Amino acid sequence: MGGQPMFILAEDTQRTRGKDAQSSNIQAGKAVSEAVRTTLGPRGMDKMLVSDSGDVTITNDGATILNRMDIEHPAAQMIVEVAESQEDEVGDGTTTASVLAGQLLAQAEDLLEDDVHPTTIVEGYHEAASLALEAIEEMTLDEELDTDLLESVAESSMTGKGTGDIEAAALAETVVAAVQQVTGDDGVDRDSITIRTQTGASSSATELVQGVILDEEPAHDDMPRTVEDATIAVLDLDLEVREANIDAEYDITSVDQLEAAIEAEEGELREYADSIANAGVDVAFVTGDIEDRVASYLAKHGVLAFDSVGDDDAKSIARATGAKTVGSLKDLEESDFGSADTIRVERFGDDELTFIEGGAAAEAVTVFARGGTEHVADELERALMDALDVVTAALDAGGVVPGAGASEIAMADHIRASSASIGGRKQLAVEAFADALDIVPRTLAENTGMDPIDALVDLRQRHDSEGIAGIVAYGQTGEIADPVEHGVLDPAAVKREAVESATEAATMIVRIDDVISSS
Questions:
Q1: Of 51, 61, 200, 271, whose Cβ has the fewest other Cβ atoms within 10 Å?
Q2: What are the helix (H) ranges across 212-360?
Q3: Which ranges of 45-146 does DSSP label H, i.e. alpha helix?
Q4: 303, 295 in Cβ contact below 8 A?
């Protein structure tokens, strides 16, 4: 070998090892977590996100903020993945999960400085997470998830978010009504609930539509704009002159031949309209094109028709109305048709929307969200989406727990009480996990204008004496109170997912001691 150095990595490869790598990763994770921490709770602040193209988003939704931030550091990206996982699994709690992950990293940083081995920290964190899940089960309310309780869950998820001029309580009623409409023996059919936003009115005009709303307009101006007790066909075809499959030229030598060709073409187009009308169809949704003359014939028959309907919309219509998608007019049968109490076309500014309501369509519902501006409508949509998801999670995934930081206080207390039986340095990691959980009530206290240290002390005392205590927003500040009495509730599934995803991300980052990156 002759003492010559051996180069394994390319010359332009950058490598960070040991404590430098750990510190860099932890700092990156903490920075991302801190970016969303001030948005937590009913008194959380908003963030303005400006894209390269100048598009502006104003929101306090953690998943939206992290998703639209231009993050390059791989460890920081793991915190973003925590929010994405939380959003995908339960639809809410993204800020809580991100903040908890950042604080777990902060606690791990202190342990590393005290020479606690990363493996010990990981083992302690996982054991503490199991204890936290036990506490969540103990905190889950035994009460039946009736309408009032579900409305409290929905309202809690929307409080402090941008809902325009309408109170979260009013929106909660709409959300719960929507979820209950699509709840059956197999649980909540979340796919049957959609949200449609439309600017031009205040948020208080938001309503629940018993059916679906489409961004479609009639194929002809003379078609009816309202059809009652509608028979509906969904057609996957083109209503226009058929083209030959081979290249051909027609030699027309007389006016009679030309007139015959035109009459044949007209007859073909008229036959399309006659077939639809004679089958008893009142409204036709066509995925392909409708030739103008066919549209005119349909209008004369009093048939309301829509063309170029997207595949997803066609599936939604079929599911909502009970129709079957048909690929040929020769195959039209009464059993293929759907029905609805009313189909109406309404104009909103420059837009026309089609409402399919009642009848079989009542199996699907749409929250028609209004907003004076696009920013208001978009933020209202995010709030409604979270509310729909948390109500679904409460019904399908294991009940509700007290909110307002009460669950985190209970988890931390249970972990500390159990840590005495854990030997060795792992006990330090378990206790550090409990300290990390305190970040949620501390942040809630800060965002409501309370002193975080005093609030944390009072919370622990109240929890010890009464078994439950949270920070309930009151006026321009907050107070230590029973969140259940104030209707501040969260799905247990949201808390479980936040603990699990934050622990997974934090332990993964802590175990990294070597970062190798190519230029």
A1: 51
A2: 255-278, 292-300, 311-321
A3: 62-68, 74-90, 94-113, 118-139
A4: no
**Nearest Cα to Cα of residue 138 among 371, 354, 407:** 407
**CA dist list (Å): 484 to 93, 146, 402:** 18, 14, 6
Separation CA 90–CA 495 (nearest Å): 10
187-188/183-184 β-pairing: antiparallel
Tokens of 229: 């007790």
Q: Is the pLDDT of residue 204 over 90?
A: no
Which burial class, exposed, middle or buried, applies to 476 when counting CB atoms under 10 A from its CB (0-12, 13-18, 19+)? exposed
Select the more confidently predicted residue: 402 or 78: 402
Instruction: State the residue for tokens 């995803």.
Output: 501
How far is C-alpha 414 from the chain's CA centre? 32
Question: SS3 of 490, please?
Answer: strand
Each residue of 17-38: pLDDT tens digit? 657 667 777 888 888 888 888 8
pLDDT the model gives residue 254: 60
Amino acid type, 57: T
Gap between the terminal Cα atoms of the chain: 29
pLDDT of residue 162 exceeding 80, the answer is: no
The pLDDT tens digits for 251-296 are 556 655 555 555 656 777 888 899 999 999 999 999 999 999 999 9
Residue 338, amino acid: G
Q: Given the DSSP bridges, would you call strands 351-357 and 325-326 parallel, antiparallel or unpaired?
A: unpaired
Helices (H), 165-251: 168-181
- Could you tell me the two tokens for 95? 């800020």
Contact yes or no for 71/32 (Cβ under 8 A): yes
Q: What angle is formed at CA 63 by the lines to CA 59 and CA 67, rounded to 5 degrees?
A: 95
Asked if residues 369 and 195 have their Cβ atoms less than 8 Å apart, the reply is yes
Q: In angstroms, what CA-CA distances link 257 with 249, 253, 266?
A: 14, 7, 14
> How far is residue 22's CA from residue 118's CA, in Å, rounded to a whole number?
10
How many contiguous H segments (helices) and E segments (strands) does the chain have?
Answer: 16, 20
Mind telling me the catalytic residues? 61, 94-95, 386
pTM score, two decimals?
A: 0.77
Closest CA to 236 of 339, 332, 314: 314
Mean pLDDT of 305-322: 89
Q: Dihedrals φ, ψ of 514, to 5°?
A: -150, 120
